């Protein structure tokens, strides 16, 4: 029986999330969501259940509204790294969800690393 794309996505997402839960050593989670039109990222404290920082291509301040390309993902990664530094966060776990680590997701992660986040 063949799995649909959605089923494979959900299996990947659960596999990634479960591994992060096992490794969780008090670090925050950098969660990425990619749609067909936008990409967004959140810095989440799972213990307190709060979002400390977020960045998205929907923000007019980043100047990439409505763009979903590698350049836009790089700007979002840089922005979340700056906001994490302001919140006093240096080390995080990268939660790619069910998205494959290439293209826009990889560009966002590389930009966040260059901005000073360690994961």
UniProtKB/TrEMBL annotation:
Keywords of this entry: Ribonucleoprotein, Ribosomal protein, RNA-binding, rRNA-binding
Alphabetical list of InterPro entries matching this protein: Ribosomal_L18, Ribosomal_uL18_bac-type, Ribosomal_uL18_bac/plant/anim
GO MF, one example: structural constituent of ribosome
Keyword Ribosomal protein carried by entry: yes
Domain of life of the organism encoding this protein: Bacteria
GO biological process, one term: translation
GO cellular component terms listed in the entry, alphabetical order: cytosolic large ribosomal subunit
Subunit structure: Part of the 50S ribosomal subunit; part of the 5S rRNA/L5/L18/L25 subcomplex. Contacts the 5S and 23S rRNAs.
Function of the protein: This is one of the proteins that bind and probably mediate the attachment of the 5S RNA into the large ribosomal subunit, where it forms part of the central protuberance.
PANTHER family: 39S RIBOSOMAL PROTEIN L18, MITOCHONDRIAL, LARGE RIBOSOMAL SUBUNIT PROTEIN UL18M
Name the UniProt record assigns to this protein: Large ribosomal subunit protein uL18
